[in-house]
Amino acid sequence: MQYGYQCEDCEVAVFPTTTRSELQWLKDRVHVAREVAKHSANGLDTWIMDGLGFLDEHTGHSIVVVSRRSGR
Ligand SMILES: [Zn+2]
């Protein structure tokens, strides 16, 4: 199973390579993660950058953590 974020307003989703609990963690602490990102130019994991990018793009929208089967 893969986990990702879905925007219920735009009906788009991303599936960064990470666990459900990490996605939930990032979603709850976007502003903290954003501060960390500012101060570490290349020290952050790709999934954090991908996740933050999505959350930024959909600020104020309804974001949920979703799952999908990998490999279809
Ligand atoms: Zn959206």
Mean pLDDT: 91
Ligand inventory: zinc ion
Shape: globular
Radius of gyration, in angstroms, nearest whole number: 12 Å
Q: What is the number of helical segments per DSSP (H or I, 4+ residues)?
A: 3
Helicity level: 40-55%
> How much of the residues is beta strand, in percent?
15-25%
Could you list the spans in which at least 5 consecutive residues all have pLDDT below 50? none
Number of strands: 3
Described by strand count, sense and barrel closure, the largest sheet is: 3 strands, antiparallel
Domain module tally: 1
Element pattern in H and E: EEHHHE
* Structural class by sheet pairing and helices: alpha+beta
Report how far the terminal alpha carbons are from each other.
10 Å
Write out the strand line-up for the largest beta sheet, numbering strands in chain order.
Answer: 2-1-3
